[in-house]
Every structure is written in C-alpha cells, then in structure tokens.
Amino acid sequence: MSLAFIPLYIKFMGVESYGLIGIFAAVQGVLAILDMGLTVTIIREMARLSALPGRAQEMRDLVRTLEVVYWGVAIVVGIAVTGLSPFIAHKWVKAGQLSPDTVEQAIRIMGMALALQWPSSFYSGGISGLQKQVLLNGINIGISTLRGVGAVLILWLVSPTIHAFFTWQIIINVLNTAVLGLFLWYSLPRTGKGAAFQKPLLAGVWKFTAGISGISALAIILTQLDKIVLSKMLTLEMFGYYTLAGSVAVSLYRLTGPVSAAIYPKLTELVSLADEEGVKKIYHKSSQLTSVLILPAAVVIALFSREIIFIWTQNPVTAEKTCLLASILVCGTALNGVINVPYVLQLAHGWTRLTVYVNSVSVVVLVPIIVVLARHFGAVGGASAWVILNVGYMFTIIPLMHRRLLPQEKWAWYLNDVGAPLAISVLVAGTGRLLMSGPSSQLWTIARLGVISAATLAAAAAVTPVTRQWVLGKIHGSALLTEKKGLS
Description:
Elements: H1 2-13, H2 15-31, H3 38-50, H4 56-92, H5 100-129, H6 133-158, H7 162-187, H8 199-233, H9 236-250, H10 253-272, H11 276-303, H12 305-313, H13 316-338, H14 340-348, H15 353-394, H16 397-404, H17 410-435, H18 442-463, H19 465-487
C-alpha cells in the first residue's frame, strides 16, 4: 500500500512535501533508540513464557509493566519532536517552495503522529510473540489500506497539503494503536486476576533488553546517518528523490519481514525446549525462503530501476533522478535482508553481544566513510555507504556467529541458502538486461519485465533446496491425485 500510493502523494503535494515525509521517516528512525529493546523483548518473552506451564499471570503482568514504560516513552517522543520543530524547520531543512513556518507546523503535527503511533510496535510485538501472525497480518492489512486510501482521499477531496496528510496520520495512528492494544490483551491467557505493574519483572529482562538497546542505538547510527547527513546537505526536493529511492529499497522488507516475524517466536520456543535439530531445520528453511523471496526481486529492481520507476511514477524526470539511488540502496537492503535470519537466531538464544561488538566497530570505521562519501558524492555516496556496511556484515557476523551457534552450518548457509539463489538470479536477470535493449512501448516493457521477473524467481526457486523440494512435492502430490482419480 505504501508503494502504491507514493506517486499519488507526489502528484498531489509535490516532491518537496514528500521530502518532509522522508524527514518524518528519518526522525522516526532516529527516535527508535528510545524503544530500548522493549519490542524485541516482549516478542521473546511472550514466546518463551507461552511455552512454559503456569506462567499466564506473569505474562499479563509483564505486558502491563512494559506497556506503562512504553507509553511514557511515547509522551517523551511527542514532546521532543514538537520542541525541536523550530530548529529543524529553520536551521536544518533546506526548503524551496515551502516556507519555514509551513515546515515547522508540519513537524509539530509529526510529533503528535509519532507519539500516537509509538505504542503500536510494542502491541504488535506482543501479538507476534504469541505466534498470532495471521491475526496481526489481518490488522496490518486493514490499517495499511485505510491509511493509504484515506490519505489519498484527504489530499484529493479536502486539501492537497502536507498538513492534511499528517493530520490523517494522527487519526489513523490512534485507531491502529487502539486496535492492536485491544487484541493483544484479548489474546493473553485469562487468569481471573488483573494485570499489575511489577517492577521486579523489569529486573528479569533488563540484561536482554539492554543488549537489544545497544544494538538498536548502534544500528540507528549506521542506518540513519546517511539520511541525517543528506537531509542537511541536500535540498528538500533532492532529499525527496532520495526518500523515494529508499522507499523502493525498503519495500524488500515487505517480502522478508513476515518470515522473520514468524520464525523468531518459533526459534525461541525451540531453543527453550533445547531442540537443536529443530532449530537447525528452521534456520536453513527460513534462510532459503528469505533468499528466494528477496534476491530475485532485488536483482531485477537493481538492473531495471529506471524502467520500473518510470512505470510506477509515470514521470521521466523522477525516474532519471531516482534510478541509480534505488539500484544502490536495493543492493544494500538485499544483503541486509538475507542476514536477518542469522540475527533472529542470535536473539532466540538471547545472545546480543556479538551484534553489539560488530556494530560498535562498524560505527568507528564506517561513520567517517559515510560522511566523506556523502560530502563528495552527495546522495550516491550516502547510498553507497549502505552497501559497504552490509557487505561487511556478510563477512563478519556470519562466521563469528557460527563459531558458537550451529558451527557446522556456516558453509551450507553461504552456498545453499544464499550463494546459489544469488548467482542464478544475477545470471538470469543479467541475461534479460542484455537482451532488453532499445526503446519500446510501455506495455511491451511491462510484459518483458514480467517474463524476466518470473524467470528469475523460478530459477532461484529451482536451485534452492527447500523451495525445490516443496515444488517437487507439490508436483508429485498432484500426479498421485490425478492417478487416483484415473483409477477411480
């Protein structure tokens, strides 16, 4: 939904106003440090406690305890963004058509929207930890549809301004947070006793929460620094193009996010039960599924970014200014996506130290690189830093993790889980890129992109063990069913 409506947002408000939405996303990303690891903690604790008998009341008390903390943080978030709005509008953002007062007012509304959205991630984490992903997906689908459709209707029929856009975000965030909160409490086991704030429960989870908080703080520096630097260096219009390219790259997480959401509580449960064979099986299956979902899509987008963005936005200027940025950011995001399952495995074991150490070194080494690249090459330099970061992750975190967790499975991950689908995706999509030359009609371009995308996905699925076995199983099952019908 977010991808579908972006061209309409730009059409109604302009690229400069869409740049403010990018500022909103950057502020939201930076303030994620105030989550303090509570969302990941609630996912892990709900999954762990639900697998143990007699812990229902502890589950309810823990949710109440962390809920109180999270709402306190939400108030801080709202006050902080509202208080910083004059500085951001007058000293940081380089607006062209929009006046500083208009920008300041929009940022004030952002603060309210952020504060009301903040607790929704905590409630989502609780529902996910209870392994009710279907329920959570249903809520997310409904809210996302209402958010996108409602915003377009507001911009079209009421007021095509950034203020109207963010006012609608406030309304939808109130609804989203309320619905998620109600369903989380409804999904918790009944005990006949009210939930209460229990300070000792914080002591029981503080070590894991502190580790996650450290990881989050360092990750925010590494993933948001390019946006912070570029929002200062670039015009608001150019930052709007960078935000658009980032939206294309972030869309890959829509493919892998459901896998991580499903396997984190499951891996936590298997680790709690000391089922190492089950952990290994889920680890490889989910890694391979992630690769098949993300790598073919990433390679096709990277190689055909200009055509895809033009078809999407129907604007040749936007496509020209965004395509290279999108290709670079997509490559970095794809690498980040495939290492997400190993990261989830670490969280399931309650092991946060490795990622904290690696991110600490990355901050020291890469922050100067990001600043230098952004200053000399602008948006392209900032995007390139994202690729450098994730290439480093691929060759540091994975070997170090496998020394402790599943030590015999490292090369299987590199070769079978990631290497094979990546190589075949590059081969098939690259061949398609070479064959697809010269001008053509938009309809013919869409048809060829569809064929190349389907062929790349099919090839990746064919060389990846888990998807190949699944497809062959379906074919074999269908053949048996046909044979039985023929005999009958």
